[in-house]
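Title: [Solved] Amino acid permease 3D structure

Original question kept below for reference.
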Amino acid sequence: MSVKVPAQEGLGDSEHLKVLGYDDSFNRSMTLWANFALGFTYLSPLVGVYSLFAVALSIGGPPSIWWLVIVGSGQLLVSLVFGEVVSQYPIHGGIYPWTRRLWGRRYAWMAAWVYIWAMIVTITAVAEFGSGFAASLFGIEHTNESTLFITLGFLLVALAINFTGTKWLSRVARIGLAAELVGVIGVGLYLLIFQRKQEFSVFFDTMGVQGDGSYLPAFLGAALAGLFLFYGFEACGDVAEEVENPARRIPVAMMMTILVGGVSGLLAFGGYVMAAPDLASIVNGTDTDPIPGILEASLGSVGAKLFLVIAITAFLSCVLSLQAAASRLLFSFARDGMIPGHRWLSKVSPTSKVPRNALIVACTVPALICILIWVNNDLLVPVTSFAVLGIYVAFQMVVLGALRQRLKGWKPAGPFSLGRWGFVINVVALAYGIFAMVLLAIPGTTGDFFTDYVVLIGLGIVAGTGLLYLFIARPDKKSDAPEGDAILVAEKLRAMAD
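Solution (posted by the thread starter after getting help):
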């Protein structure tokens, strides 16, 4: 694999962007470390492991930890495909401009529409889950009202930080990265080394979750342990025009996000399993929120409080990164005239050099969803259930678009290149993505139609409304930005370097 093409040495960031049809409108103040921090805090292994630990163990037992390895490996392949695409197209918005330049306007519209809603719902979910940590830290009774106000607080604080500009976004992302590393790697290692109450062989012990039948269905059901964790690396590409030397740095940041996130998730998940004083009660579903008890028993009350501070920092940083990524996607969508209110949404603040109007939308819509959840608390699960499947659908639209261009003769011209391995990795990444989407879309077995099919219902509603708007309003006809030009752009970049 090659990460450097000598022929591209003389092509600067502004020159590269001009070839793609855009002028520099942002401050390129984001370093490789800050870009990695943005992706890592969006991926947030602390948030993912905490949210799914009990569910995964109750479905698949301790062997469910291996889904972190399986999904991490699959998503690493996806990140390699993304790396080649963003290296040729270091443009704000990630999923939207990539699918547009790899396929076309309508295809990009659907990819972006699904992805925007998945991101907005994810912002809502992360802020909602983070409110519980804040309530516990400050001794606030956990009611619907307190949850609403704390959740709105998370959203507004993140908005205020994002308003200040890319430098503060980078700083807080780095703080969030440090909190994540302490909260998952530090605590995980401590639990594994000093608080171990199980043998390592427990990770091969199903503990009877399969009953009298085969273990395979139970193991497949526990796939959520990995599938809900390994996304967020694409956010590194959402802010491409604010990164110096993005064609080289962003692919590296994406891979770092997956690798460090995977190790962090494994240490955290493994540490909680090994330190659980009553693992059987978690596996049989009696203890549905075991991590506070594990931390209290292992770290003491003071240590548990310190962990809450770390967790709140991680949740806030995750919301911050999500808002930033969503706003850049909205800006990119609007800059090409592809969304209602595009003139307003495509404005960039002359002082802070961030798309403030898009940021307002990325805060306001999640806030409105939070109010709906406050009115009916049962809406949280159905509102958020489609988010992960929607994100995987959008990811695979990029992977499929890249494969289509390869079959037409595309040879990526960015400084990050997979070389002769590109086609094979692209095919395997697509196969993995289809497998992951099937796992996410498999209906439940509760017998209640809405509960069992809520993921598909959510995705169907979002995709259906997107298709209706696409064919009624025809936003694709209102935009003349380039599309489907991967081969032509690659040829132009190579010609400029000669």
